[in-house]
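Lab manual, section 2.4: Encoding a predicted structure.

Procedure: take the sequence of the chain (125 residues), apply the prediction step described in section 2.3, and record the output as structure tokens. A sample record is shown.
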Amino acid sequence: MTNFLLSRLRSIRHALRGWWYVMQTQRNAWIHGVVATLVLIVGLWLGLPTRDWAVLILTIAMVFAAEFINTSIEAVVDLATQEHHPLAKAGKDVGAAAVLIAALAAVLVGLLILGPPLWEKIISW
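Recorded output:
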């Protein structure tokens, strides 16, 4: 049991190192973080219901997961080759497209969830 717990702690430590790497090296991850923080603050201000919180949290996690996977693809491609290869470019471009799709979906989810109550609050002023 001790070995199992120690191996889980090591896994968490590796994951946190990966998180730290992304946050240190990827400018877009910081942008995602700032936008996510603003969304969470607005959600608190609006007093969103639990189901809306669940959707927002899953959406934020989806964007970060896409960014983290894209960063890992870029790192592996860079490790595999230093030369410009069409498949290396395709791999990186597809990873970036995944982040773009996740971010665009997040904007739509944010507008659908935050838009109506935010509009109501603005109108009531």
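Check your result against the sample. The chain has a mean pLDDT of 95.
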